[in-house]
Amino acid sequence: MQINIHQTHHTIGDFDNIFTYLKNLIEKSEDSKDLFVFPELFLTGYPLQDLCLQRSFIERYEDLLAKIDALRNPKMPTMLIGGLEYEMDDHGIPLKIRNVIYEFNSSGLKPLYTKKLLPNYDIFDEQKYFSAGNKNTIYNFEGHTFGLLICEDMWMSSMHSTDPVKELFEEVQAEDIQLDGVINLSASPFYLGKDKTRLIRASEISQLFGCPFIYTNRVGGEDEILFDGSSFVVNGAKLTHRAKFYQKDILSYQLEKFSGEIDHKKALNDKVNSWESLFKANISKNEGGEFRLPELTDEDCEEILQSLRFGIQEYARKSGFKNFDVALSGGIDSALVLAIMKLSLEENQNLEAIFMPGFFSATMSYDLSFEMCKKIGVKLSTFPIKFAHSSLRNQYNDVFKDPMEGLCDENIQSRLRGAILYARSNQRNSMVLNTSNKSELSVGYSTLYGDSVGAISPLGDLYKTEVFALSRYINKKYGEIIPNGIIDRPPSAELREDQEDSQSLPEYPVLDTILEGLLSYRLSTGDLIEMGLNNEEVSKVFKLYSRSEYKRKQFCPIIKIKAKSFGTGYRIPICKKN
User: Is 380 part of any domain?
Assistant: First the structure.
């Protein structure tokens, strides 16, 4: 038999297109004995958050189910489709919402299996909305037998009191059933290294049951969260089929016999999983024996680049933007954002860069910005802030009888730039790309309503050292589109005379190591000092990090590419005792 894995790409709640997709598929199929498999919550999209509680959403979803059910006919194929099952009270309020696999065939829509493990960590909050299942499903189709799982059910974790894989295994052992396959419907977000972890776990399950493991995942950028697709089939230790990365795709898989060695021990005892992995600080010893972030490989950089390009375009498409603006400073962060956006640009889209020099902007900053824009063919507009800055200084002193100095004077420059950037955005209906990185966000090294502005942040999950690594990779692959002068110059905000980042912060390789330890939740300041990091620097960084929560709460969405990121999955009180 053939299993057709549909790796789909739909906007959340786009019921018209979801219906059309199924309708076209049914109309093209002729008395098929194939099995068609779709991702988790294909019928709604994911993550839904409070949307699944809104009455208008529920009514539209119920209309969709009725329209789909009306499509059934005697010659249609059988489908396994991820969706919601609502249980309502007399007033139309949801009593229970279940994340289920529907079987859809000539008999109509029927729920087969309810997701057992409801993740409630990081970006996930499924226990707030869904009711967990408690039964295994062994599915028989055309003389073949399959075990069914939904996404998290394939993982074991100390945070869950049940293990769906183990429970399914115990049932097939007790009933002396030989499965022909395990099918997993997923909506699994991307982060760097996640694909490798998925494949390892899938291989373990395949070897446990002695059958292929069939995995289908959705594609999409949902605000900050990315779904990469990358659906696959694993047979024992071998990856036999693979769908595209960040593209809708259909895998046609001819069901085959198991071709590996059965291994019960690993799948039932291995504790490496998505929940605990969030607490792993990505720090290792370098050749000099110092603890640092590991260097990004070319493969890592390519995954990151594709993810950021996809995330920007998804956000823009779903928000209705075709024009983009980047505030170019002559520094590495804005140059990298401009480069990524240029590489992402589609035919009907437009990109502009705006250089806004102040009193402390170096001539080199303009020269490098001009050089880059000329090289990549992007319009560069120069809008000096010197005159507005000077006027504000004078007026401020006249009104308050208090000279504008220090941080006040530095921040007003950044906010002037933000105001100009958004004036341009309003004028041409453009999307402003934020240029802050994860290191700056962590320690509050940015100005609220200044350089922190933007619709979305491409670099907010990349430390400064990783910004440099990705920039070098892009130059290596695309021919030095970022001038080497930008990469080589010392980082500076250029808000006061002879300013450099190193005057306010530890050197970035050290800073980023400290931050990774803190943000993983696994390492304390004491742990970091024991690892050989400087006591004074660790204490300073922790103080800056703890005091900057109010800035992060007001920051724009960040494209998530790491296991632990700022944004939806990071929730810390602003008001607390540090």
Answer: yes
